[in-house]
Structure formats: C-alpha cells, structure tokens
Design a protein that fits this description.
The protein has 130 residues and is mainly β. It contains one helix and eleven strands, in the order E-E-E-E-E-E-E-E-E-H-E-E.
Length: 130
C-alpha cells in the first residue's frame, strides 16, 4: 500500500520561496508517476507539476519557470521547489502517485486527470500574502 506524506508548507510573501517534500512508502515498482496537485475551496484539483519514472518533468503553464519538481529515488522523496510565489499560488498542495505509469506518458493526462491517481497524501497548506 502506497503512503504519501507532504511537508514544508507554510506562509510566504509574494516573490518568496518554499520547498515542499513528499515522502513515499510502499512504492512496489519503478513505474510510478508522481504529481503535485493543488486545490482551493470549491475548486477542482489542479495539476501543478509531474515527474515520470525516468525523471522527465512537466508543468502547468501557471507555474512554468517558477516551480521545479524533482525526486530522490533512494530516499523516495519528491520535492516541489516554489519560487517567485504569487498570492494565486495559495492552496492546499497534495502529492499523488499513479501506478503502472511509464516514461513518456502524455503530460496532459498526468496533470489533468486526478481521477487516475490511486494514492494521495493528506496535503500541506501554502499561503502567499503580504
């Protein structure tokens, strides 16, 4: 059973930075895609950044150039480095894992189909305000 635990959320000023971490356990194969989603009250999950088994990354247009997703396969941790934060980045951020996911899986689906993810963390709140 895959378990995910996010950490690193908090408050930041506009233009500031935060780094989120997602520690995974129970990943029983190499073929997982890991994605950061975010959600604000009353809205659907928004895919922010995704990384496939081979380490290829893709981003939502809203965060491209500001956020960086990476992973440490040995420690089973996925990171989301967030820079140049904006108030509209305020949300609950979730880490999610999609099994049987191969390198080259179209990013469109990975970022826009949260229903394909079988494992989710509990979320960590990010608040950006002055």
């Amino acid at each position: 059973q895959v378990q995910l635990a996010e950490s690193g959320g908090g408050s930041a000023q506009p233009g500031g930075s935060l780094r989120l971490s997602c520690t995974a356990s129970g990943l029983d194969s190499y073929f997982y895609c890991l994605t950061w989603f975010r959600q604000t009250p009353g809205k659907e999950h928004e895919g922010v950044a995704t990384i496939d088994p081979d380490g290829y990354t893709n981003y939502a247009d809203s965060v491209k150039g500001r956020f960086t997703i990476s992973k440490d396969n040995i420690k089973s941790i996925v990171y989301l480095q967030m820079a140049a934060l904006k108030p509209e980045d305020t949300a609950m951020y979730y880490c999610a894992a999609k099994s049987k996911c191969h390198a080259g899986t179209p990013a469109w689906g990975l970022l826009r189909r949260p229903q394909d993810y079988g494992s989710w963390g509990q979320g960590t709140q990010v608040t950006v305000s002055s």
